[in-house]
Specification:
About 15% of the residues lie in helices and about 45% in strands. The strands form 3 sheets. Strands 1, 4, 5, 6, 7, 8 and 9 form a 7-stranded antiparallel sheet that branches. Strands 2-3 form a two-stranded antiparallel sheet. Strand 7 and strand 8 form a beta hairpin. The longest helix is centred in the middle third of the chain and has 8 residues. By secondary structure, it is mainly β. The termini are far apart. It contains 3 helices and 11 strands, in the order E-E-E-H-E-E-E-H-E-E-E-H-E-E.
């Protein structure tokens, strides 16, 4: 398997009572903190990332090295998610550049981007969305 990196921002949704973050921690290695040039919006209680050309728009996240291709397939299964979450077509997985915070090195990662118009959505701050609201240990709060 070629080197597959994934940029995770906010929180990953739980699908069919399976904690995707737990699956990620079992099947990947933490690389470090990074930022993506983009903005976060609130969509159905979930943080949605869009890309931006403005250097001041930075969304902080984590980079993971995936140990197997099945991990990305599990995370991709949006159609298995409950009605509280955005529809599958609202997100696309792309390969894009993120910047590692500790070394400022640019690395190519898989990034999930919001694929709809953001008019009418609320912009939210970058950071760990999980700490502010939504999931704590896989439970909706």
């Amino acid at each position: 398997m070629e080197d597959m990196l994934l940029f995770v921002y906010g929180t990953l949704r739980s699908c069919n009572d399976n904690d995707v973050r737990r699956d990620l921690s079992k099947n990947s290695s933490y690389v470090g903190e990074a930022y993506y040039r983009g903005k976060l919006y609130l969509v159905d209680s979930y943080p949605a990332l869009i890309s931006s050309d403005d250097p001041s728009d930075k969304v902080i996240g984590e980079v993971y090295r995936l140990h197997n291709s099945e991990t990305i397939e599990k995370i991709d299964k949006y159609e298995e998610c409950g009605e509280l979450f955005p529809k599958p077509y609202e997100f696309i997985r792309v390969q894009d550049v993120v910047t590692m915070i500790d070394s400022r090195a640019s690395v190519e990662c898989f990034v999930y981007l919001y694929n709809r118009k953001v008019e009418g959505l609320t912009r939210i701050k970058s950071g760990d969305f999980c700490k502010d609201r939504m999931y704590r240990d896989g439970v909706l709060s």
